[in-house]
Amino acid sequence: MPSTDNPPGTLPLKQTQGFHDDPAHPRVVQKYGCLVLEVQDYIDGINHPEWGREGKQIFGPGGEPAMMGGESGLRLQRPPGEKGGDLVV
Questions:
Q1: What is the spatial distance between Cα 9 and Cα 36, in angstroms, rounded to a whole number?
Q2: Compositional bias of type Polar residues: which residue ranges (predicted)?
Q3: Tens digit of pLDDT per residue, the chain (89 long)?
Q4: Domain limits of the chain?
């Protein structure tokens, strides 16, 4: 689900993410960067055809459409001192 819905500015990374002490790589997702959520079927199912999941993992022309459903929530908090409310997706 790639999305670049014009966020208002940069989004800070978690303390455990990104490069530290490297000004060439700021620890943020840039304004026009993407957040991507990847949905997986059975973990490692692609390497286990005996599980019978091929029809649910690879889609292409002439086959059934890829359909899925799900629900989640995400709240991004602005850094202290930055104006505006939290971004809720």
A1: 17
A2: 1-18
A3: 445 555 567 778 888 888 888 888 888 877 766 666 666 677 787 888 898 887 777 767 887 777 777 777 777 777 777 777 666 65
A4: 1-89
